Amino acid sequence: MEEVKIEKNGPKKKVGKSVLFGAAFLMATSAIGPGFLTQTTVFTQQLAASFGFVILISLLLDVVVQVNIWRIIVVSGLRGQEIANKVLPGLGVLLAILIVMGGLAFNIGNVAGAGLGLNAMLGLDPIKGAVISAMFAIFIFVVKEAGKAMDKVAQIAGGVMILLMVYVAFSTSPPVGEAIVRTFVPSEISIFAIVTLVGGSVGGYITFAGGHRLLDAGVKGVESLPDVTKSSVIGIVVTGIMRVALFLAVLGVVSQGLAIDSENPPASVFKLAAGEIGYRMFGVIMWAAAITSVVGAAYTSVSFIRSFHPMIEKYHNWVIITFILVSTITFAFIGQPVNVLILVGALNALILPLALGILLVGAYKKDVVGKYYKHPLWLTITGVIVVIIMGILGIMTLIERIPMLFA
After folding, report:
1. What is the distance between the alpha carbons of residues 210 and 23, in angstroms, rounded to a whole number?
2. Alpha-carbon distances, residue 179 vs 182, 187, 190, 275 (angstroms)
3. Dihedral sign for Cα atoms in the order 340, 343, 349, 351
4. CB 335 within 8 A of CB 119
5. 191-202 vs 34-47: helix axis angle to the nearest 10?
6. Three-class SS of 223-282
7. Which of 220, 228, 335, 342 has the most crowded CB, counting CB atoms within 10 A?
8. CA distance linking residue 123 with residue 115, whole number of Å
9. How far is it, in rounded angstroms, from Cα 331 to Cα 38?
10. Whole-angstrom Cα distance, residue 168 to residue 160?
11. CB atoms within 10 A of CB 403
């Protein structure tokens, strides 16, 4: 690999804003899926205003993870699995298998979520809605400029979701003052909620979505780092805005003493907040969240096997399309394989510490980042802390969930 040399006075390569925002929104909208909506609603019910503290801590951890991973990927000019193979031969293959397994399993849930979104929005049968949504996702990768199309869809969908979510949040008249106080002085703390939110925001394939997108757009090298850092933080901010808006919407409903339907908590919140129109809004948000997660999961999962064979690299868009088709067919004919999702969900909790740990080691290898790059010490220290915490809690989650497969 060509070594990266820092030129203090050299020309800085200009990174287009559309690329930076595209990567940020791809990461953010990949994180904002059907699970995101349900998790936020359920935890707000349980913790009320104190859930604001969970959001704050999870966002701080998210920033540490994303800034570390995006910097190392862009400086090295290598994808996650390539860095892993340089750290230890064969490690990249293991990481790729975990990412693809998790991405495929959860994409079945994303496709299902898209079908439910069209059902709430237009009254379509969920399976028909899932098939139509899959065709839309596939079309993105059929067009000539697939990368640009993906960026644009992610940005538009993200913008629509934020606007609708903020509107619903205001319509429920939440106790904002109490939420602000409890964000810094919680009356109850849930470690499980923090781990779940971090895993859902930057776990599995989501960890690499933005970084790999930047590489595919030609963004690499030390000179790009300031822009890359901004892009990673923008992605976390977008995710945070959505999380806070949904938190306030649910808090407003809960504080009024209204009962949320346990069968479909997020849909119930929107209906209680704004009636039938609110339910249709939920359909729009659910579909936008699900379709962008379908695209993000397929794109990022396939990016982990592109370097394994020249044919995969050459026809990677068609491999992505196949990935989406398999997810859709599985949902349409088999349904969501609950036991598989349970196991992969537990394995997914381990991907974040494994991936971050590997990249932190890579940040100190000259054949990965070159002779001249020095990874910031504060990022290394905070990154190691996240690896240890998420590693321990991920193993505990795995041990707890494996028996459920045989129940």
Report:
1. 4
2. 5, 11, 16, 24
3. negative
4. no
5. 160
6. HHHHHHHHHHHHHHHHHHHHHHHHHHHHHHHHHCCCCCCCCCHHHHHHHHHHHHHHHHHH
7. 228
8. 10
9. 19
10. 12
11. 8
CA-to-CA distance for 255 and 139, rounded, in angstroms?
43
Sequential pLDDT tens for the chain (407 residues): 334 443 443 444 555 677 788 788 888 887 787 777 888 888 888 898 999 999 999 888 888 988 999 999 999 999 889 999 999 999 999 998 888 888 888 888 888 888 888 988 888 888 899 999 999 999 888 877 777 778 788 888 888 888 888 888 888 889 999 999 999 999 988 887 887 788 777 777 888 888 888 888 888 888 888 888 888 888 888 888 888 988 898 898 888 888 888 777 888 888 888 888 888 988 998 898 888 888 888 888 888 888 788 888 888 889 999 999 998 988 888 765 555 555 555 566 678 898 999 999 999 998 888 888 899 999 999 999 999 988 887 777 667 666 655 55
Q: What domains does the chain contain, in order, with CATH numbers?
A: 17-406 (1.20.1740.10)
Q: What are the start-end ranges of the E strands in 77-231?
A: none
- Structure-token pair, residue 70: 């995006």
